[in-house]
Design goal:
Length: 371
C-alpha cells in the first residue's frame, strides 16, 4: 500500500471522490511529533504547526494516540511538559513492534484498521505496519504539518459531540475500569453509574448530531438508512413526524447523543421508520429502554406500532431487540394506513402495545407523545 493511500472503511458512508474518514491518527514521537531523539539527549520540541494539527484534529473529533519506541516514563514526562498528554488515548510507548501497538489501539477503540492512520519518520517502521496491517493508512513525517488539510482528516460535519469525542472515549475507559473492579451483579453496577437519559424533540441545531448518528451507526441501526440534513429538516417540518434524539450522561460524564428515533403518526398506528443507537451504549441497554418507552407511549395513546426493519450483515442485534420487544410479522389492518413506497427489502413488523414499567437502571426525562 502506498503511503497516504486511502482504503475504504466498510462502516462509512462516502460521497464520490471523498476518501473514507480517518477516525484515529497514531503518532510516532522522535522526529515526527517532536524534533529530535529523546533518548539521545536532544532537547525535543514540538513545532507550532504540529501543535495546531493536533489541536485541529482533536476539535474535529479525530482521536489521536501514540506508538513510539521509547522509555515510557521518560517520553510521557516529556509529553506532560509539552502539555500534550490530554490529547492521546490508549498510548503505547515501549519497545515492541509498532504493528502490535496499532492493533492494540484499534481493538481498544473498536475501530476497523481502515479507520486508523499512522505517521512515522522511519520507512522501515511504516513498512512493518503495512506488512501486518495493510488497511492502515500510512504517512511520512514530512506530511505532519499538512495532515489537517487532507480530506480524510476533514469530517463533513463537526458536531458538539465531535468536539468532545476524545473526552467521551476517555470517560468510557474510566467506566470500563470501574466495571472491571466492581464486585456485584451487573444491574447494581449500572445503577451505580447514576445514568440520566433524555429524549427530546430534535432542534435545528441538533440535526447535525442526528445525521451523524445515522451515518456512523451500523450495528444498531434498524434499517441501515442514512438520513441527510435536508431529509431530516423535511421531516421536522411535517406535523405528522417526530424526530427525537436521545442523550445520556452518568457520573463519569456525558455520552453525548446516543440515539435517534423517527416516527410518523397515522390514525390508528405510529410508524417507527428508524431507531438507531450508538454501539457505545449497547451494554447499558439503551436501545431496549427507548423501545419500551415508545411502546408505553403508544399504549397510553391507544395506538398500534409498526416498525421498519431491513436486515444487514451488521444489525442482527437490532432484529433481536425488536423481536424481544414483541414485534412480529403478523398482519393488521393498520398496515393499510402506511405509505406503500417502502423498499422491497424493508420489512414492517407490528406490535399491539401494552403499558411498560419504568427502567430500574437509569432516570428518564422524556416528552409525552400522546395527545
Amino acid at each position: 500500500m502506498s503511503e497516504g493511500e486511502t482504503v475504504p472503511d466498510s462502516d462509512a458512508v462516502t460521497v464520490p471522490d471523498r476518501p473514507a474518514p480517518v477516525k484515529c491518527l497514531v503518532w510516532d514521537l522522535d522526529n515526527t511529533l517532536w524534533q529530535g531523539t529523546l533518548l539521545e539527549g536532544d532537547h525535543v520540541v514540538v513545532s507550532d504547526a504540529v501543535r495546531r494539527v493536533i489541536e485541529d484534529l482533536d476539535a474535529r473529533g479525530v482521536l489521536q494516540s501514540v506508538a513510539s519506541k521509547n522509555d515510557h516514563d521518560t517520553a510521557w514526562e516529556r509529553l506532560e511538559k509539552l502539555g500534550l498528554t490530554e490529547y492521546f488515548v490508549l498510548p503505547h510507548i515501549g519497545w515492541g513492534p509498532k504493528s502490535h501497538a496499532m492493533r492494540a489501539i484499534a481493538e481498544g477503540l473498536n475501530f476497523a484498521h481502515s479507520a486508523m492512520a499512522f505517521i512515522d519518520d522511519q520507512p522501515a517502521e511504516r513498512a512493518e505496519v503495512a506488512h501486518h496491517l495493510p488497511d492502515v493508512r500510512l504517512y511520512p513525517a514530512e506530511l505532519a504539518d499538512s495532515l489537517s488539510q487532507r480530506p480524510e482528516f476533514t469530517p463533513r460535519t463537526v458536531t458538539v459531540d465531535s468536539r468532545r469525542r476524545r473526552e467521551m472515549y476517555q470517560a468510557g475507559f474510566q467506566r470500563e475500569s470501574a466495571r472491571s473492579e466492581f464486585q456485584g451483579p451487573d444491574e447494581e453496577f449500572l445503577c451505580s453509574l447514576r445514568m440520566d437519559m433524555r429524549i427530546t424533540r430534535a432542534t435545528a441545531e441538533e440535526l447535525s448530531r442526528v445525521e451523524e448518528l445515522t451515518l456512523r451507526t451500523s450495528q444498531m441501526n434498524a434499517t441501515g438508512v442514512h438520513y441527510s440534513d435536508a431529509a431530516l429538516r423535511e421531516l421536522m417540518a411535517d406535523e405528522r413526524h417526530e424526530v427525537l434524539v436521545t442523550t445520556l450522561q452518568d457520573r463519569f460524564g456525558t455520552h453525548g447523543a446516543v440515539g435517534v428515533l423517527l416516527l410518523e403518526r397515522h390514525p390508528s398506528a405510529w410508524h417507527l421508520k428508524l431507531l438507531a443507537t450508538s454501539c457505545r451504549v449497547v451494554s447499558f441497554g439503551v436501545g431496549a429502554i427507548i423501545l419500551r418507552w415508545l411502546i408505553d407511549q403508544a399504549a397510553q395513546a391507544g395506538m398500534h406500532l409498526v416498525a421498519d426493519f431491513r436486515s444487514t450483515d451488521r444489525n442482527r442485534i437490532m432484529e433481536i431487540a425488536y423481536r424481544f420487544a414483541g414485534f412480529t410479522d403478523q398482519q393488521c389492518a393498520c398496515l393499510g394506513e402506511l405509505s406503500v413506497g417502502a423498499e422491497a427489502s424493508i420489512q414492517r413488523w407490528h406490535l399491539l402495545p401494552t403499558r411498560q414499567e419504568a427502567p430500574t437502571t437509569m432516570r428518564l426525562d422524556t416528552p409525552a407523545l400522546f395527545r
